């Protein structure tokens, strides 16, 4: 289905599922698009179900201009019951964001221009972030007297550390592409003119990899801060055993023995 901007909200391109949650050059969150994306991501199901559908990665895309400028602040100001209205928007955003974080396959975003407020939350929730030389992110919530949503106060300390997160959030700090790379928020730096192509290529590379193994890596990383070492070692042992017993492991071991590149998807 296409959103207000005319481009599809969800579209499968080869083994990559492209999703858009914003509208317009400003990149404000689009409520109907978020609902559609949440449904599509939940529909991916387990690793096995995603593999059956031929999906190996999700790419969070936008229509040009800024990656995401956050919520529609004008609609917040115009609401009769601002607290209730903002809660409704936050709940919708959180439904989509949780589905995005929990989806079985890797996620990729090419962050063009500004990612502010909810846009920064989306960046922090993404597995592999590609930025351009002019990319900027900013919490932005304090500027309108708000506290964060979209998991920002949960993800940011886990990426940059609690002390640095306090400074970034409390001072509403603007972070450049170089800052994002040095802090571990971004993974790849591209020239602005090559940003979209680099993000697309990154998603395609991941999608052609061993879907089950990459999904298990996501799952292990997600539990890093929730488990003690013994529990995590047991999870790793179970995961690597399942990989070795599955078709991807068989292909990887066969390819290694035959001294060729593995062909995980035909």
UniProtKB/TrEMBL annotation:
PANTHER family given in the database record:
EG:BACN32G11.4 PROTEIN, ENOYL-COA HYDRATASE
Q: Which Pfam families match?
A: ECH_1 (PF00378)
Start-end of Basic and acidic residues biased regions: 257-266
Under the heading InterPro entries, the entry gives:
ClpP/crotonase-like_dom_sf, Enoyl-CoA_hyd/isom_CS, Enoyl-CoA_hydra/iso, Enoyl-CoA_hydra_C
- Family note: Belongs to the enoyl-CoA hydratase/isomerase family.
Q: Which organism is it from?
A: Pseudonocardia halophobica
Name any one GO molecular function.
Answer: catalytic activity
Give me the ranges of the annotated region Disordered: 244-266
> What is the name of this protein?
Enoyl-CoA hydratase/isomerase
